[in-house]
Amino acid sequence: MEYIKRKSLLYKSGVEYADYGLNHVEGCSHGCNFPCYAFMIKKRCGVVKTYQEWIQPKIVENALELLDAELPKLKDKIKCVFLCFMTDPFMYKQPEITDLTLKILARLKQDDVKSTVISKGIYPKELLDKSIYNENNDYGSTIVSLSEDYRKKFEPGSAPIKERIKALKRLHNAGLKTWVSMEPYPTPNIVKQDVREILKAVSFVDKIVFGKWNYNKRISAQPSSKNFYNSMAGYVIDFCNKRGIEYHIKDGTISEGCLSEEKVNKDQIDFYLKSTQSTSSSKAMLV
Question: ∠ at Cα 278 (161, 179), nearest 5°?
Fold first, then answer.
């Protein structure tokens, strides 16, 4: 593991659900190739040059020192800190990163600062330790498919999907708020699957975020991709409303004038549920 130093850590995010963010790692060994938005930005800015460089993460060795210096000045202004927009705080099979993340969460709790966390790794049991446990925190996992074939192709270094869900449910059972990001959700020409099976597997969470897949030509090659995303978003909305689960549909997922959150097109949803599920109801089929 390589180390780097930075001059600052906390920054204003510009998003409504977490006004501040921090990235205590450069790069990500999960190597997602949707392509990864964070990698594209860092490459464009010249921070990293190649994919191989990106998947060899570097730890910000002075992260805790920076947090100690910045929190006293900002803690009264911060509503929520997001971990992380440009990396993964619980990177799979990266114990040094997990250890630093736990220390950061403990430090944020010390000043009663809320955190929202997202990971494709496995949440450790240490999050339930008294020094870290914060009932105000939100912990999320990205789950867009239950297919391991899909994960190995598009999220090659990430944790097995069942293990992610199991760890997330452990946090839920301990009284912590949990959520799932179903973004970027794949079209049927990438993987044939039944969205109902995914939603059933994560139905214990407090919130579901759903979004379309961007930056990939195969999405636009999917026939009626707009109708597909309208239908899938509509089903997610209907599913959450019936179960009292909070939801958020990312901007651009629902085509304007085609489907609103107040009016779900049942016939269109049923059509896509039937036409996109795999030949085996228990296994998604990678195309």
Answer: 35
Helix, strand or coil for residue 124? coil
Given a contact cutoff of 8 angstroms between Cβ atoms, the answer to whether 166 and 201 are in contact is: no
Q: What are phi and psi of 116, to 5 degrees?
A: -115, 130
Helix/strand/coil for 119: strand
Which DSSP state fits 175? Answer: T
The side-by-side arrangement of strands in the sheet containing 58-60 is: 2-4, 58-60, 25-26
Which residues make Cβ contacts (< 8 Å) with residue 244, sequence separation at least 6? none
3-state secondary structure 125-165: HHHHCCCCCCCCCEEEEECCCCCHHHHHHHCCCCCCHHHHH
Question: Is the pTM for the entire model greater than 0.85?
Answer: yes
Model confidence over 189-223: pLDDT tens digits? 999 999 999 999 999 999 999 999 998 888 888 88
Residue with tokens 């659900």: 17
- Long-range contacts from 71-77, C-beta under 8 angstroms, 24+ separation: 71/10, 71/107, 71/108, 71/111, 71/113, 72/111, 74/10, 74/20, 75/111, 75/112, 75/113
Write the CA distances from 249 to 100, 151, 217, 254, integer angstroms.
32, 23, 22, 8
**Identity (one letter) of the amino acid at 202?**
V
pLDDT of amino acid 268: 59
Q: What does DSSP assign to residue 116?
A: E
